[in-house]
Amino acid sequence: MKKKKYDYGKCDICNTPLEEKQIKQDLWIKGKLIIIEDVPAGVCPQCGEKVVKADVGLWMTKLIEDSDRISKAPKISVPAIKFDPEELAA
Ligand SMILES: [Zn+2]
Fold first, then answer.
1. How far is the CA of 18 from the centre of ligand 1 (A)?
2. Which of 6, 17, 23, 79 stands the most exposed, by the fewest C-beta atoms within 10 Å?
C-alpha cells in the first residue's frame, strides 16, 4: 500500500482545516479504560475536534473486540479521584 497524505477536510464544528496529528485515544470498554497511542487523526487547531479515518476507526473497533490483546497490553496507572459535593464552594 502506498502512503500518501490524507486530507481530513475541515472541522464540522468551526470549519477550520484539520491538521494530521498522532493522538492518544482513550476508550472505555466494559468499565475499563484503555488508551491507544499514536493514533493518526485529524485534529482541529481551533476547537480540538478529532476525526479518525474510517480504516483507523475500523481497526480500533476490531481492537476493542480483541480482549486477549487488551489483557496482554502493558498497563499504566492513572489517578482516580472521586467527586465530592462537599468540596464545592458554597
Ligand atoms: Zn473546530
1. 8
2. 79
Q: Give the CATH number of the domain where residue 24 resides.
A: 3.10.20.860
Q: For residue range 48-77, list pLDDT tens digits in order.
A: 999 999 999 999 999 999 999 999 999 999
What is the model's pTM? Answer: 0.77
Do residues 50 and 21 lie in contact, with contact meaning Cβ atoms separated by under 8 Å? no
pLDDT in tens, 19-33: 999 999 999 988 889
Distances (CA, A) of 41 to 10, 45, 68, 77, 83: 13, 12, 25, 25, 31
Q: How far is the CA of 35 from the centre of ligand 1 (A)?
A: 23
Say how many domains are in the chain: 1
Q: How far is the CA of 81 from the centre of ligand 1 (A)?
A: 30
